[in-house]
């Protein structure tokens, strides 16, 4: 016998995986260059040169036992101090090394935080569509559940009446992701201020703190001078789940952190519970070598030139073709309205043209589809007339 939930999770194929396999099959039949795969959210820019240089320096110059040994569960103090210094320089965050817990990426940050905040089977987490589908998996890790608030179409900010209605005495936290996967939208300061007011009001109403979990792997991926607010300065009970997967193009290295700033009510208790949750799930410590790399690279920022160019090309081309696109202020995705109103059916039309796009149903927004523009520029150029044929087929 095995655990049914785990079996289902492990044996079912995700929609993206199926598209990936379809793409591979078609590549064999028609040639890789004739498959327009916009499905996978994997950074296409190499990690900054400083990262690779740091790996070499560390491996060449630091005692191998230290480089590859266990670190303390929360991560090296020197690494956490370097990150805290950077956050203080950039945001006036007023944080110190003790506010950081190093993790194996945002997924581990989120599961540890969610598990730490799950009181019992009645515990609820609320998120706003469109949302990263893995939240449904993460929310259940401690036995709780996820509630999804309908999307605010076409701006993709937050419908506050719906959010308020979703919160009750079992709500422990609201999870937000800005810049957003899949929409690329960044929450405005007005939205975050209203969110803070709502959570403050609801916390008083239910008689306990409702935390805000800010999932921020795309924090540094922004275009045209867009601003990503430092959320704890707007809502103090914010726990930040961060990752270097996208900002330093290191998704396979599994490195990130949870930041529980001291302005969070009972922050030390929350921090210790996160440490306990990570221990319970067997994380032990974040990868030691990469912690040392991060310590030296806190000032590194992604090279956004290629993403910015691709974003503009794809957005302009699709709009010229007649598509409606959500404001792609950040991340590396475009969220596009399916011309026939049904993104699952439109994805099938795409497959007939060897164009792979992710239907929005899994993100809680079935009218839209996601395109990841971490692809060759030439592929985008060649795809625009095909998108035109696809929209014409819906007329
Ligand atoms: N949160 C969001 C919104 C994401 O898009 C992703 C990955 O794509 C993650 C979390 C998980 O990131 P990581 O690779 O750091 O675990």
Question: What do you see in this structure?
Answer:
This protein has helices spanning 4-11, 15-30, 49-61, 64-68, 77-91, 105-117, 134-139, 160-166, 189-206, 267-280, 288-296, 305-321, 343-352, 377-393; strands at 36-37, 100-103, 124-128, 145-149, 171-177, 211-215, 238-243, 256-259, 333-337, 355-356, 358-359, 368-372. With 395 residues, the protein is an alpha/beta fold. It folds into two domains: 4-47 and 303-393, Aspartate Aminotransferase, domain 1 (Alpha-Beta Complex), CATH 3.90.1150.10; 50-297, 3-Layer(aba) Sandwich (Aspartate Aminotransferase, domain 2). The strands form three sheets. The chain has a seven-stranded mixed beta sheet, sandwiched between helices. A three-stranded antiparallel beta sheet has the order 9-12-11. The longest helix is centred in the middle third of the chain and has 18 residues, at 189-206. The protein is globular, with a radius of gyration of 21 Å. It starts with a helix and ends with a helix. The mean pLDDT is 96. The protein binds pyridoxal-5'-phosphate. The site of pyridoxal-5'-phosphate has 13 residues, from helix 6. Pyridoxal-5'-phosphate binds at residues 41, 105-107, 132, 177, 181, 215, 217, 243, 245, 251, 256.
């Amino acid at each position: 016998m095995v655990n049914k939930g785990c079996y289902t999770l492990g044996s079912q194929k995700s929609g993206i995986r199926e598209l990936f396999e379809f793409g591979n099959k078609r590549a064999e039949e028609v040639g890789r260059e004739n498959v327009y795969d916009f499905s996978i959210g994997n950074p296409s820019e190499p990690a900054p040169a400083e990262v690779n240089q740091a790996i070499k320096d560390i491996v060449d110059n630091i005692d191998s036992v230290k480089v590859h040994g266990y670190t303390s569960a929360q991560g090296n103090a020197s690494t956490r101090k370097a990150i805290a210094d950077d956050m203080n320089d950039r945001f006036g965050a007023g944080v110190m090394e003790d506010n950081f817990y190093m993790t194996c990426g945002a997924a581990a940050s989120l599961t540890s935080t969610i598990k730490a905040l799950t009181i019992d089977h009645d515990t609820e987490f609320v998120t706003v569509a469109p949302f990263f589908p893995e939240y449904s998996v993460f929310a259940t890790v401690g036995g709780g559940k996820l509630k999804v608030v309908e999307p605010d179409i076409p701006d993709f900010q937050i419908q506050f009446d719906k959010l308020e209605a979703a919160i009750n005495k079992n709500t422990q936290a609201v999870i937000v992701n800005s810049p957003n996967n899949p929409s690329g939208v960044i929450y405005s300061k007005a939205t975050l201020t209203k969110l803070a007011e709502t959570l403050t009001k609801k916390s008083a109403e239910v008689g306990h703190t409702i935390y805000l979990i800010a999932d921020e792997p795309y924090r540094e991926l922004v275009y045209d001078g867009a601003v990503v607010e430092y959320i704890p300065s707007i809502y103090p009970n914010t726990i930040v789940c961060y990752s270097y997967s996208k900002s330093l193009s290191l998704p396979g290295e599994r490195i990130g952190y949870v930041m529980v700033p001291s302005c969070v009510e009972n922050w030390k208790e929350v921090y210790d519970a996160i440490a306990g949750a990570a221990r319970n799930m067997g994380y032990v410590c974040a990868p030691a070598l990469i912690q040392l790399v991060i310590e030296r690279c806190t000032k590194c920022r992604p090279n956004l030139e290629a993403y910015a160019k691709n974003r503009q090309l794809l957005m302009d081309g699709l709009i010229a073709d007649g598509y409606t696109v959500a404001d792609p202020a950040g991340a590396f995705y475009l969220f596009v309205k399916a011309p026939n109103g049904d993104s699952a059916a439109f994805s099938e039309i795409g497959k007939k043209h060897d164009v792979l796009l992710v239907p929005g149903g899994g993100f809680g927004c079935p009218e839209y589809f996601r395109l990841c523009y971490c692809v060759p520029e030439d592929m985008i150029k060649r795809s625009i007339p095909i998108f035109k044929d696809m929209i014409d087929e819906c007329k």
